[in-house]
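The protein record quoted in full:

***
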Amino acid sequence: MANVGTIYENSSTWQRDRWLELMDLFIQQKIKKDSLELGLDLGCGTGQRTIDFINKVPSVKNIYAIDANPDMINTAKKNNSSDKIQYELLKIEDVDKTKASGIDFILANYSIHWVMNKELVFKKLDKIIKPGCKLLVGTVEALPDMLQAIDDYLRSHLNIRSDYPYYFMTRSAWKNILTKFGWKILDEIKKEDDHIVDAKISSLRGWYSASAGIAFYNEGIDFFENPEIQALKSFLDENYGIDNKTKWKYREQTYLFVASKE
């Protein structure tokens, strides 16, 4: 059976590019890097961004990196290990179960929208962070229409009637919750870009791993070898196909911000 962590590592280029933008936004704040020693990575995935942050900020002594998917954590430990990173299989909502304290910075790149009760997370963070703690968040305000169409198809195919597993917030809602818990946004980026991917089943497999679908729908990546998935591909070809239907094109939202605990 295919490992979702390995597939994610090879298919999460969109998240990687947004991370680079987020890091540029962070660097522009001219924050004293030597003040950043202890950190949290909420939803670390395969650890690619975790190790990247360490490489860019050598003053970091330790990062507690958590993720709820065992394949992600196993891939992180195998491919992106460091004496400075403590990987742990844990939900973001259970961040208080880590040994973290005196936290200087928090990373959350395309992970926080999987958390329903964000207020609970911020309450727990209040107990383990330092004043002036920095928060780097990459997220979106809504699922792109093509990804929503994929999700709707799979939920129908798998006869899933439960609520959707993602909990997006608008920019204004983010500002409200940050203000409530004493955070101030230092800078932000909000935009929309065209997103173009190969019109192939492999792209669907990549989306499934990058979207953490495997964690919520209890179907492995090999599910996409099912011939019935061709009906989904045909639908996407008709509605999003370009270049003689060799590519799919849709609009992808971006909302990135850097905040500081006041």
Q: What stands out?
A: The two ends are 47 Å apart (CA to CA). The domain at 4-143+165-194+250-261 is CATH 3.40.50.150 (Rossmann fold). The longest strand covers residues 183-198. Residues 66 and 164 are 22 Å apart (CA to CA).
